[in-house]
Amino acid sequence: MTGLPRESVGDSTLSLLREGYEFVSRRCEKHQSDAFRTRLLGRDVICLRGPRAVALLYGTAGLKRCGAMPWTVLNLLQGPGSVGTLEGEAHRHRKSLFVSLMVEGDAADQLACAFEAAWAERLVFEATPNVLTTASDVLARVVTEWAGLGEGLAGDPRFRRDLFLMSDQAGRFGPGVVHALWRRSRAERRIHEVLDAGVDTGTPADFIVRFEEGGRPLPRDVAVREILNILRPVVAVGRHVAFAARILVRDPEWRDWLRTVSENEMTAFAEEVRRTSPFFPATTAITTERVDLDGLTLQPGQWVMADLWGTMQLERCFPAAEVFKPGRNLDWRRADECFVPQGGGDIATSHRCPGDRTSVALITAALRVLCRHVTWRAPEQDLRISMSRMPAKPANGVDLTDVAPER
């Protein structure tokens, strides 16, 4: 490992907080290398980008996720004992729960259909709707109802806000994170109450509660966390909807184009939104044994970070990567080592998020609303994106005005 360039500063944590999504790529460019060493939070870490980074984190044995991410991130995004903390056969078996619900079933179509109708109605109802706020809130209601948790929970604006803040504060530090952790605990208690009262047979919540490991149903605390691991990511797609709306505001010709294109072309647009949006920044792991991959040798106990955002901006992977171009033939179905908006590798066996299909369906539904179901104008507003904020968003979430049904 002596051949890897090393950052000269003692610890790069403050630089990571200042630079956010651009931290790894800037140093890779400086060192003319897709891998370098530094220290973060006092720990030695190897940062990587590109296909080798994705192959390492999503297709190589001898790594574990548990202990690789800050405690606050783990507890906001996963929770102890949840699928993201497992490895090997235990992970593959638990992952089959999510694959069955979110990939093999018709969850994506059901959620997209419900969201499309409800969000179009919500936009018309409000005088000056904010895309990020309204889309996230409607998604929270829709996915809670779909999961079978009842109108009482789906209709509670506090619960819906709790779901939003879990992702919104995951990459942050300070009082907002403490507040979000408290709200997550409250959301878990609310789901416990619903499960104790009983849910309808055949609903996703019922499926999770009855899912067996070792001949026994999941412990109730774990089942609650896995239910949240379906609700929370669906709500987070509201951020992608805001990035899509930002594109339509800044470049109105895309809005005109989307009014008449085929469903496949609209889906291609949604995939390019996912490539260009600073959404999921990176993933981390710790080696449990010696790992050799494409000239890289890692010793046991090595902390590694794969830059997902930076990988999708590489020119060798995506020519003219800075240009928004829907014709790149991107497809969530492929295990691509460059197109990794929600991770890479095989969905069923790797730590890749199983929500790609649902994300694409929901973004496409949002595009239909914005380009075919309603008319609108956009006032002057701040659409800048701070790359130091993780997760990022258009500065004000994208405001609309004069929304009316399409005639």
From TrEMBL:
<keyword id="KW-0349">Heme</keyword>
<comment type="similarity">
    <text>Belongs to the cytochrome P450 family.</text>
</comment>
<keyword id="KW-0408">Iron</keyword>
<dbReference type="GO" id="GO:0005506">
    <property type="term" value="F:iron ion binding"/>
</dbReference>
<dbReference type="GO" id="GO:0016705">
    <property type="term" value="F:oxidoreductase activity, acting on paired donors, with incorporation or reduction of molecular oxygen"/>
</dbReference>
<protein>
    <submittedName>
        <fullName>Putative fatty acid beta hydroxylase (Cytochrome P450)</fullName>
    </submittedName>
</protein>
<dbReference type="GO" id="GO:0020037">
    <property type="term" value="F:heme binding"/>
</dbReference>
<keyword id="KW-0479">Metal-binding</keyword>
<dbReference type="GO" id="GO:0016125">
    <property type="term" value="P:sterol metabolic process"/>
</dbReference>
<keyword id="KW-0503">Monooxygenase</keyword>
<dbReference type="InterPro" id="IPR036396">
    <property type="entry name" value="Cyt_P450_sf"/>
</dbReference>
<keyword id="KW-0560">Oxidoreductase</keyword>
<dbReference type="GO" id="GO:0004497">
    <property type="term" value="F:monooxygenase activity"/>
</dbReference>
